[in-house]
Each structure stands twice: as structure tokens, then as C-alpha cells.
Design brief:
By secondary structure, this protein is α/β, with parallel strands linked by helices. It has helices at 32-42, 56-72, 86-94, 104-108, 111-120, 153-163, 184-193, 207-215, 226-229, 235-244, and strands spanning 5-13, 16-21, 24-30, 47-51, 77-80, 99-102, 125-134, 137-142, 147-152, 167-172, 198-201, 221-224. Helix 1 (32-42) packs parallel to helix 2 (56-72).
Amino acid sequence: MLAKRIIPCLDIKDGTTVKGINFLGLKNVGDPVELGRKYAEEGADELVYLDISATNEGRKTFAELVTRIAENLNIPFTVGGGLSSLEDAGVLLRAGADKVTVNSAAVRRPELIDEIAAKYGSQFVVVAIDAKMIDGRWVVTTNGGKRPSERELFSWAYEAQERGAGEILFTSMDHDGTKNGYPCETFARLSERLSIPIIASGGAGSVQDIADVLTVGKADAALAASIFHYGEIPIPVLKRELHQMNINVRM
């Protein structure tokens, strides 16, 4: 059985790691390369870097940063945020990223998934899905959870898989930032529907929350930001406690 993965997420704005709530009240929490190296040394299995810069200049800075990260990191890392074309993906993969993540652009034009998978391989494509419960239905949203789309979580995740996604990164916008745990039943349903790995995001506030989504929720990996950036749950402590719960993690 494959080991469950622990994945810190770093939001990047103009080359700096920042943290806020829904991208508001952003605070600088450290150099992306140094933070990434620290998490790798602590036992992170992978990293995700998301570019939240709104400008073309910010995108250029991000591509340069990816090169620096690749030169200094010895674990896989995924990059994304605002990626909207095959060309965008190519720039980041050539800069040294192991995988790219697509989100809103894929909802608007699903063929983007096919194009990246066809050129670079499914293992390079992570489709990120932000969804929220609206009238008893998981509605896929775009623009950081702000705009509901016509798509529904389970059918969209399946379509993304069939188009060539290698992994799904699902964030419940209802749970994100609450630190009240993940919607484990939803993750379990997703896992049963798909044959590709699922990364759980949004809601981690305790070791038990992460244990629950990896077991009850059947997720293959847990992604978190604040609990790592602010030292609330150091990665070695998290992994040790998960190991004691008989959850298969790399020590």
C-alpha cells in the first residue's frame, strides 16, 4: 500500500511566501526557497507552490523562482495559480517543476487538461477543484471560490480524470480556513469514483483532522498551509502521531 503524503502549500505573491484568509490580509511568512528546504528537511513528501500574483510581472518572477526552487529542493514540487494555457505549463515545467496544477482555466476550457497531458504526460497534471455545497449539491467554483460554475464536483472530477489528469486536488470552500476538519464522506465518495490519487485540502486544524481524511476520507495525501507556516503542528510531530495511529507515512 502506498504511503500517505503530507504536502505543505505555499502561496506566492511577487516572489514571496504569503498567508492570509481568502487572499486578504496577506502577511509575509518567509522566503519560498528557504521555507521549502525547511519543510523538505522536516519530512514533507512534496510541496505545492501557488502563484497568487495578479500581474504579468508577478508571473515572470514566479517562473524565475521555480528555477531557484528546483535547484535547491530534493523532493517533488507542484506549481500553479492562474495557469491558463499549454504555454504557461511549459514555462513552469521547463523551469524545473515536477507537476503543474490547473483550476479555473480548466473549468472554462476543459481541453486544457487534454493538451497538457498529451504533451507532457498525465503524471505532470494535477487538476485542482474548489467546490462548495449549494442547495445540497457540490458546485464547482472558480476565481478562488468566488464564482459558482455549472459543474458538479463528482462529474467534473471524473471528466478531469478521463481527460488525462494524474491527480485531483480537492478543496472544500466551506471548510477552507475553518480548521474544523475535512468533509470526509465527500472525499470517500470521490475516492470510490476515481482511480487516480486525491489530495485533500482545506480544513486541517489538528492531527486528528488529517488522520480522519486519510482514513475515513480515503485521501491519498493531505495538503495544509497555516498549521505548518505558524508551527502549530510541525511535520515531524504530525508524521510521528499518524504513524502511531497505524497510518502508513514515510518517516
